[in-house]
Amino acid sequence: MQKFLSKQLHERDLSFRSELLSTLMPLSWPTFPIENPTWIFFLVLGIILLAPALMRRLHIPSIAGLIIAGIVIGPYGLNVLVRDDSFELFGKVGLYYIMFLAALEMNLRDISNSRLQTFLFGLLTFAIPMSLGFVANSLLGYGIAAAMLMAAMYASHTLVSYPIVLRYGVSKRKSVSLAVGGTIIADTLTLLVLALISGSYQTNTSDLYWLWLLLKVLAIGTAILFIFPRISRFFFRKVNDGVVQYIFVLGLVFLSAGLMELAGMEGILGAFLAGLVLNRLIPATSPLMNHIEFIGNALFIPYFLIGVGMLIDLRSLFQLKAIEVALVMIGVSVGSKWLAATIGQLTHKLKPVDRALIFGLTGSRAAATLAIALVGYNILLPDGSRLFDDVILNGAMLLILVSCIISSFSTEWASRKIMLSKEIEPIEKPAEDRIVLAVNAPAHVEPLVNLALTIRTPRSTQPLAAINIVTDDNPKQQAQGKESLELAAKLSAAANIRMQTHLRWSVNIVSGLSHAMKELDASDLLIGLHRKTRLMEPFFGSLGSDLLATITKQIIVYRAMQPLNTIRMLHLVVPRSAEFEPAFSAWADRVALLASHLDCQMQVYSGNDTLMALQQYWEKTGVTLRCHYEPYNEWNDFLPLANRMRPNHLVIFVWARENTVSRHPYFNMLATQLEKYFSTRNLMMIMPAQNRGTIGKTSVLIAK
């Protein structure tokens, strides 16, 4: 019996070991192509992580490296991955992202000032490749429809290399605005050619097909441009959560793209229009903009580029006919875009480096070219053949590869040369200013952080700093101060700006701020006002006069009734003779940065001489603002100005301190008038510094 039990236990032990080994050891190498979603996503992330680093060592732009990586792992390479639904989904998101970011980063002021020039360049960069391409394709023996549709592939372009421009910080350059603005013209005309030819092969095409197509595109485009901004402004006024705002923005992009697809056009046109709509509502320095760029450049755009590479079959080069067609396609496409860029550069009197930049941005093919190639390949002729054969399809894929590589090299070279030559917009010149926020109430931290990010000199190497003054040993006050500092640091980090925080003890707020500003070498003090509090007296009490007497540096008082990015008009009131103050340029630069980043109109009120001096100063510093200068004489009663104010307007008063040349008697009653007429308005007061030598390094923001 004991022997039997021992045998049973031994057999059970063997069975348990067998099951354990079968559970732990059935690790087998995956078969190719890999179909497991986990491993697919891991490999793509590995490529996104490693390919750019490897390409930099080889002095190849990372964008070209991702396309080459897609060729290597794709079905026509090592067959590690197939272009499954994930590449279709993420690739389409990446494609829309490129067009959306391009429109979002456009300098609309330059586009507005040169609408005709941009339109003409768009026609130029479409017409030259279209005409030369049609002739070349006809010489290859293709019919009228095939030759015209192939030429449309040459005329289109996708801003694949635009992330390079963003990385080098030259997106505001005039040549970039010209190239990006011409994109919408060239791609719209290209997509219309595609719709024209593809529609002619549809059996149910009526005589009114083209009129109906045009009406649909115009109706949907008008709805996007005029209805979406109102929806967006209402949403941003009501919702402050960054995640919800990002989802809303992405939803608008896909809604716009989907509506354009319903109209019979490609979705990239809708994504571009969505970017134009949101351009003024998403400042370049905002946390939301940082989120949009980060997610797109980290995942969606690389996914799209890898997917493009997976479509390219290098084996087609072994066919003589394919080589001939591919060389013609690449030569005519690249040469015609270079010719268009050269004419555009000469016409607009730009530098030679701008020609390379324009060519780099307009030389790459991806989105529209891919759509045209696939549509042409799927069109069946009456004899059963395809409008585009395999030779044209493979040639189109090679055109995408070569054009993206050339475009990346050209954009990288031009952007680097511009960056090294310091040819950046004057308003965005590097400066060592740091913005310090002294915060008390968490509810007022976010408006002040957003303002700090807006008036902060771009590309400043100094971090932000936040300070909270504690005046007694109250645990509740200390906890609230720490909460405010943590919130300020979190909001700043969302915009990829480092924030230093300080909790400071002092006998009173003025003393604490005075010592902190000296220690931090501060230059500007911004005080946040409570929405329902009286200005100056009695709200400040002795605090207001003590601050003015103790702090000789620039003081900015700010009250936000709605989010800063929804402001559509600035009203700047400047006292006469303000141009003679030593701190004139300090507050003028801050206002210029504010108006530039918000991209809104500004109405300036003052005496004739002061208006002329302010206009000349901004022109001299190279600032492009949408300003209207109006002589103002109602200094004793601001009711006429108050009647012009709207909820989405911000009024800015430039103060004058005691015993200064711009101090006038009406300043004695100005606080009362501001409380009377502007108690429910977005309001800012700038009190210039008294010593110009102390200006230019730091801004201090205070939430009362």
Key words describing this protein structure:
Rossmann fold, Na+/H+ antiporter like fold, single chain, 9% strand, eleven-stranded mixed beta sheet, 3 domains, 26 helices, 59% helix, 11 strands, 704 residues, disordered C terminus, elongated, alpha/beta
Distance between the termini: 89 Å
Individual helix count: 26
Domain count: the total is 3
Residue share in β-strands: 5-15%
Q: What structural class results from the helix and strand content? A: alpha/beta
Low-confidence stretches: 423-431, 533-541, 692-704
Tell me the major beta sheet: 11 strands, mixed
Write a concise synopsis of the structure shown.
By secondary structure, the protein is of the alpha/beta class. It is built from 26 helices and 11 strands.
Describe the protein.
The chain has 704 residues and is an alpha/beta fold. The protein has 3 domains: 29 residues; 385 residues, Na+/H+ antiporter like fold; 277 residues, Rossmann fold (3-Layer(aba) Sandwich), CATH 3.40.50. It is 59% helix and 9% strand. It is built from 26 helices and 11 strands. An 11-stranded mixed sheet has the order 3-2-1-11-4-5-10-9-6-7-8, sandwiched between helices. Strand 7, helix 24 and strand 8 form a beta-alpha-beta unit. The longest helix is centred in the middle third of the chain and has 31 residues. It is elongated.
